[in-house]
Amino acid sequence: MSGDKPNGLPDEAQLSKMSRDELVKLGTEMDGVELVHYEERWPVKGTRAEKRAERLVALWFAIAALAGVGFLAAFLFWPWKYEAPHTENHWLYQLYTPVIGATLALSVLALGVGALLYTKKFIPEELAVQQRHDGGSSPVDSATLVAELGDVGARSTLGRRSLIKRTAGLGAGVFGLGVLAVPLGGMVKNPHADSETKDSLWHTGWKSENGEKVYLRRHTGNFHDVELVRPEDLDAGGFETVFPFRESERGHEHELVQALKRADNPVMLIRLRPGQAVTKRAGQEDFNYGDLYAYSKICTHLGCPTSLYEQQTGLLLCPCHQSQFDVFHYGKPRFGPATRALPQLPITVDEDGYLIARSDFTEAVGPAFWERKS
Ligand code: FES
């Protein structure tokens, strides 16, 4: 805004009596703005062409609203859980990411196209040249600027286009809801609602639902291929990632695949070297089986797999942000951003010599969540 004012500026009383057009004219003169070209888009109001243009803009905003509703519905209700290839619902699972991506993209695109079309079809064509000045704004500058902004609003004709206003509000509103749904979506389902089933945040696939034995199984790359683990399978200093298996799942493709895919199932089975001293966690003194210790593979920082084991120092490294967990001290964090120990799975051997889980983890695995106290 201008710092050098021409003489004879109106005082506050005169300003309050001036019309908006007069204030706009005064403001543009004071700002050294010269209007070189000005042309209304629709000099004759209410023509059929104008109505058509209005409906076209409204159509894009309506598309934005519909796509936003589609995104919200897919985000909340689409069957997103993994389904194995060749199973009935595999195609639905495969469509989840494309559907939420396409609906969100269409919502953003339609909002943008609607706004662009409105500018092209309804904002007057104007070419102005303004000299630049230094300095702050005086009361006169402020009053004229407010008038100019009001004038822009009036000339855009938005005030009298209620169809466009409503559809634009609807499109932007639904899009806003969709954007909010992403961070808030996790709170829509109550993790306490089924806290005793293996599907709640408090449990994992290691939970035995009806007293059935849960074996430690290795992943051979073929989910039909069930290989159970025995203590002698691991050399001293070695480690292996294992998953839960129940006899009732044998031959059931869906269950077998789920056990390997479920995010909180992977467990690192570690065999310490002879003579390596271990400090056990209070209350978990019998969770190991001899030199064999089983820890959740899911980092307690942000849930990456902590898969690098250094057998001499007993440190497990998470490659994401370099947290280190000490296997000699019940998986306690030694370095990095993680603050909680890796949960330990209580294990033993059954009468046939196979390693089994004595129960589920006794605490939630992975990163903390609001309801978790530790
Ligand atoms: S997820 Fe493991 S350190 Fe961040």
Can you walk through the features of this model?
The protein has helices at residues 12-17, 20-30, 48-77, 90-122, 139-155, 162-184, 253-261, and strands at 33-39, 125-130, 214-218, 227-228, 239-245, 267-271, 292-296, 308-310, 315-317, 324-326, 332-335, 347-349, 355-357. By secondary structure, the protein is an alpha+beta fold. It has 2 domains: 12-187, no CATH class; 215-357, 3-layer Sandwich (Rieske Iron-sulfur Protein), CATH 2.102.10. Strands 3, 4, 5, 6, 7, 12 and 13 form a 7-stranded antiparallel sheet that branches. A 4-stranded antiparallel sheet has the order 8-9-10-11, with no helix packed on it. A hairpin with a 5-residue loop joins strand 12 and strand 13 (355-357). The site of FE2/S2 (inorganic) cluster (FES) has 12 residues, from loops.
Ligand inventory:
FE2/S2 (inorganic) cluster
Total strand count, please? 13
Envelope shape: elongated
Number of domains: 2
Using only C-alpha atoms, the radius of gyration works out to: 33 Å
Separation of the first and last Cα atoms: 57 Å
In short:
The protein is α+β, with helices and mostly antiparallel strands and 374 residues long.
Which characteristics define this entry?
374 residues; alpha+beta; Rieske Iron-sulfur Protein; 2 domains; seven-stranded antiparallel beta sheet; 7 helices; elongated; disordered N terminus
Q: Layout of helices and strands, plus pairs?
A:
Layout: H1 12-17, H2 20-30, E1 33-39, H3 48-77, H4 90-122, E2 125-130, H5 139-155, H6 162-184, E3 214-218, E4 227-228, E5 239-245, H7 253-261, E6 267-271, E7 292-296, E8 308-310, E9 315-317, E10 324-326, E11 332-335, E12 347-349, E13 355-357
Antiparallel strand pairs: 1-2, 3-4, 3-5, 3-13, 5-6, 6-7, 8-9, 9-10, 10-11, 12-13
Helix pairs in contact: 2-5, 3-4, 3-6, 4-6
